[in-house]
Each structure stands twice: as C-alpha cells, then as structure tokens.
Specification:
44% of the residues lie in helices and 0% in strands. The protein is an all-alpha fold and 262 residues long. It has two domains: 114 residues, Cytochrome c-like domain (Cytochrome Bc1 Complex, Chain D, domain 2, Orthogonal Bundle); 121 residues, Orthogonal Bundle (Cytochrome Bc1 Complex, Chain D, domain 2), CATH 1.10.760. The longest helix has 17 residues. The N terminus is likely disordered. Bound molecules: heme C (2 copies). One heme C binds next to helix 5, helix 8, helix 9, helix 10 and helix 11. The site of one heme C has 29 residues, from helix 5, helix 8, helix 9, helix 10 and helix 11.
Length: 262
C-alpha cells in the first residue's frame, strides 16, 4: 500500500504561516518523503542504508534521533522497537497528532514502519545529563514515592511496575522514563490527560493519569528528570515484576504486561 508522496507544496501550505525558516523545512520534508519511499531505492546513486533513508527524520529529531536541544522534538534513538512502531502507527492512525510528521509516515506500510522502528531502536547513544531539580525536597520525595509505589488508595500503579525497576523501559513495548527533559514529560503526560495523545485501547496511561492529581504529576516529572541513567541504560528484556500492588489498569499497546481493564 505504497501511496505517492504529497507534493512539497502540501508541506509548504502546512507551514506557510510560520515564515521563511520553515519554508526550507517544507522543501526538505517533500524531499524526505521521496527518499523514504522504498520504491525510490534503486534510483538513488548514494549509499542505501536505513541511516541514510531516515536522515530526514533527524532534521527534527536531532542527530541520529537523539532529540533536539529544546526538549520539544523527542529522542527516538534507543527507545524499544515495539514502542516506536506503535507511535508511528498512532500518528498514522490519528491517535497522536503532528501534521508535518504524519504527512511523512502516512503513506508507509506497517512493514516499513517496523523497519524504521527497528533502526532507531538499535541505536545505543549517550543520554543527556539529568536536570537539576527546581522543586523543594518534599515534592521530589513525593515524586519518588509515586514512581516506586504508586498511590494504592487512588488505584494508581507504580510507574516501576511497567517501566521497570531501573525505569529504562521493558522490551518490546514499554519506553524508559529517564533521560527525557521535564518539559517533554509534562507536555506528553498533559496531552495524554486531555486526550490529545492516545494509545491503543485500553489506554493504561490515560486511565492512570485520570487518577493522578496535577500536583502529583508535577512531582513525578520533577523527580524523573533529575535522575541519572543507570550504567546499563537499555530497556530490560523481560516483563517487569510488579513493584507494588495488583495491576489496576490494562495496556492495549503492551498486552504482555497483563493487568485488568479498569
Ligand atoms: C517536522 C519535524 C519532524 C519530522 C521531520 C519527523 N518528526 Fe517525528 N516527531 C516530531 C514531533 C514534534 C513529535 C512529538 C509530537 C507530539 O508531541 O506528540 C514527534 C514524535 C515522533 C515519535 C514518537 C516519539 C515518542 O517517544 O513518543 C516517533 C517514533 C517519531 N516522531 C519518529 C519519526 C520518524 C521515524 C521520522 C522520519 C520518518 C520523523 N519522526 C520525522 C517531529 C518530526
Ligand atoms: C500499567 C502499565 C504502566 C504503568 C503503571 C505506567 N506506565 Fe507509562 N507507559 C506504559 C505503556 C504501555 C506506554 C507506551 C504507550 C504507547 O504505546 O503509547 C507508556 C508510556 C509512557 C510515557 C511516554 C514516554 C515517551 O517517551 O513519550 C511516559 C512519559 C510514561 N509512560 C510515564 C509514566 C509515569 C510517570 C508512570 C507512573 C506515574 C507510568 N508511566 C506508569 C505503561 C505504564
């Protein structure tokens, strides 16, 4: 199901309001789509590797997908393959929204999206240093408690029970929570809370966030962003053992975790 790339004018239209700097981006994206198309492989004279074909992604996602400096364009390097694949499908299928990128991934088949996900998942690259916390110690302490133990009274499971005891994620579908800027965590989790970001149903993160008050969420992201990565920053290869309490939410995007629908 390889559809044709949108004409560069489509991207240009999408970014016209934002000015000259972005007109370059629009042209680059039109070209990018053509480069990504598997059908274009034979016609190109230069090295045909996944790194080469996904160069256009790094215009936004930073060199090799390590994230751009501003915290807005997420890191994709080294996130688990199933998680990346699910996100690419989420954009294509309308569960997440970012028009400029969706225009690039929309025409691609599942098999090709999986190949792209495998490429970025396989990149083992250094993470940025942790961000010094900007909140009082009591808030950090509350964040640490929620991450480790959840809030059983509210039915909030511990972050560690799914994201792993080291918080580096669990292969193949659960991402790590360290090495991400606080702004990124706040904006993504905020978008999840309002329904702007969604995962396959049942959407455990949405269910969990509905039970987590805003000040608790802020405490969690402050603590997470201040933690260094462990010596081995890779996602664990087994399903995490439950840190605390029964699993009160189920994840359609990570069925291997078990759990019951709320
Ligand atoms: C025009 C800039 C831009 C380009 C080009 C772009 N992306 Fe993105 N991408 C984004 C933004 C912005 C987000 C976060 C959107 C949001 O807030 O949900 C994102 C999110 C993602 C995510 C989800 C990350 C996560 O951890 O949840 C993946 C995976 C991804 N992009 C892969 C790609 C790939 C692969 C390409 C190349 C085919 C690409 N992107 C090209 C801007 C871009
Ligand atoms: C029941 C299992 C479960 C629990 C508990 C859980 N998560 Fe998640 N989380 C997931 C899954 C599965 C995903 C991937 C969803 C998808 O495919 O979009 C995810 C994704 C995320 C992401 C997106 C990462 C990125 O790079 O964009 C963040 C941030 C996150 N979780 C934070 C948390 C925090 C903070 C907690 C604790 C308060 C928590 N999670 C508890 C299962 C869980």
């Amino acid at each position: 199901m390889q559809a044709a790339c949108p004409h560069p004018a489509v991207y240009a239209g999408a970014v016209r309001v934002t000015g000259a700097r972005y007109r370059f981006l629009a042209g680059a994206l039109g070209l990018a789509c053509a480069l990504l198309a598997p059908g274009a492989r034979a016609a190109r004279p230069f090295e045909d590797s996944m790194a080469q074909r996904t160069l256009p992604c790094t215009v936004c996602h930073g060199p090799q997908g390590r994230a751009a400096a501003d915290g807005y364009y997420p890191r994709i390097a080294g996130k688990p393959e199933g998680y990346l694949f699910n996100q690419l499908r989420n954009f294509r299928d309308g569960r997440r929204h970012y028009g400029l990128m969706a225009a690039m991934v929309d025409p691609l088949s599942d098999a090709y999206l999986q190949e792209i996900a495998r490429h970025f998942a396989g990149l083992e690259l250094p993470y940025p240093p942790p961000q010094p916390p900007q909140v009082p110690p009591a808030v950090l302490q509350r964040g640490a408690t929620l991450v480790r133990d959840g809030d059983p009274a509210r039915g909030v499971p511990a972050c560690m029970s799914c994201h792993g005891a080291a918080l580096t994620g669990a292969w193949p579908n659960v991402p790590g929570l360290l090495g991400l800027p606080r702004d990124y965590l706040n904006s993504q989790l905020g978008a999840w809370k309002t329904g702007e970001r969604r995962a396959q149903a049942p959407d455990c993160m949405a269910d969990l966030l509905r039970r987590l008050p805003d000040d608790d969420l802020a405490a969690v992201t402050a603590w997470l962003a201040a933690q260094p990565l462990p010596a081995d920053p890779r996602a664990v290869r087994q399903v995490p053992t439950r840190a605390a309490g029964p699993m009160t939410v189920a994840c359609g995007s990570a069925p291997e975790l078990g759990g019951r629908a709320p």
